Amino acid sequence: MASNHHEKINIETVSNNNSTISSNIEILACSSAAASSSSSSSRYENQKRRDWNTFGQYLKNHRPPLALSRCSGAHVLEFLRYLDQFGKTKVHTPMCPFYGHPNPPAPCPCPLKQAWGSLDALVGRLRAAFEENGGKPETNPFGARAVRLYLREVRDLQSKARGVSYEKKKKRKLPPPLPPPPQQLLSPPSGKSALQFGL
Description:
This protein is of the alpha+beta class. The protein is 33% helix and 14% strand. 12% of the residues are buried.
C-alpha cells in the first residue's frame, strides 16, 4: 500500500547582486511500504531531483520569471553558462602558456568552469526529469539541437585547452575463444595394427 509524505528542500541561489535568495520547495513524494525510507532512492534519482529543483529555482529567479512551459533550448544554454561561475575546472585560454597541457607546472589566471562531463551528465538528468514531470519529449528543451551543439563545443574546447581526450574509450575485445582440443585417436586394441582398422 502506498503512503504519501512531504519533503522540504532548502535551496539557496546567488543573484547577480550577490545577495542570497533562499526558498523552501515542498515535494509530495509517494512511497511504498517496501521503499518508505529515503535511503532506498538511488544516488542518481536523488541527484536528478536536486538538479530539477535547482533548475526550477533558476527559472523562478529569472528576470522576468520564466514558466517551464515557455522554457527553450536558449534558456537551458543560459542556465549552463550561469553554472560556470561555480565551476572547478581550469580551462586555459589559447594565449596561456599552459594551453593544451594536462598537468600545468604552475598556476595561471585562466578561468574556472564547469567540466564538460559534469554538464553532459547534468543535461541528461534534466532531460529525463523534464519528461518525468509531464513534459513531452518533442518539446524537451534539454534535448534541443542548440544544447547538443553547445555541449559538443564545450567538449572540444576543453579537450584542446586541457590537453585531455574525451574520446569514448573503446571496449577491449576479448580474445577469441580457444578452439576445442583435437580429439585423440583411440589406440587400437593390443595385438592388432592400425592398418586393420583402416586408420
